[in-house]
């Protein structure tokens, strides 16, 4: 999916390239952080999210539809669920890349 940044440059919906062109990158990050700061989590929902992220990271083969349902029941939107999955996937990929490079003597 292609969308437009504030300056009109096409950006990919995949998250590559930082989400905005360099001119607006800092402003977009700031606006995104402000939007997130307005959200309030339901009581105990952070624990549900942490448990989901931990399981997805450490035991991805054991993930079930019920794991997603618990997030939704805790008040997380589909967008928030997708974001959580993306963050866990990125962090795991990055950690494995660093570990592999370190083992190869490249860091």
Strand content: 5-15%
Query: H/E element string?
Result: EEHHHH
Q: Report the biggest beta sheet as strand number plus sense, adding barrel if it closes.
A: 2 strands, antiparallel
What gyration radius follows from the Cα positions, in whole Å? 17 Å
Q: Write down the overall mean pLDDT.
A: 75
How many helices? The count is 4
Helicity range: 55-70%
Extract low-pLDDT stretches: 1-19
* Spatial shape: elongated
**Number of separate structural domains:** 2
Structural class by SSE content = mainly alpha
Alpha-carbon distance between the two ends: 35 Å
Let me know the number of strands: 2
Précis, in short:
The chain is built from 4 helices and 2 strands. With 107 residues, the chain is mainly alpha-helical. It folds into 2 domains: 1-38, no CATH class; 42-107.
Q: Which descriptors apply to this entry?
A:
107 residues, single chain, 2 strands, mainly alpha, 4 helices, disordered N terminus, two-stranded antiparallel ribbon, 2 domains
Topology:
Layout: E1 2-4, E2 10-12, H1 22-37, H2 45-58, H3 65-73, H4 78-103
Antiparallel strand pairs: 1-2
Overview of this protein structure:
- The protein is mainly alpha-helical.
- It has two domains: 38 residues, no CATH class; 66 residues.
- Helices cover 61% and strands 6% of the residues.
- It contains four helices and two strands.
- The chain has a two-stranded antiparallel sheet with strand order 1-2.
- Strand 1 and strand 2 form a beta hairpin.
- Helix 2 packs antiparallel against helix 3 and helix 2 packs across helix 4.
- The N and C termini lie far apart (35 Å).
- The N terminus is likely disordered.
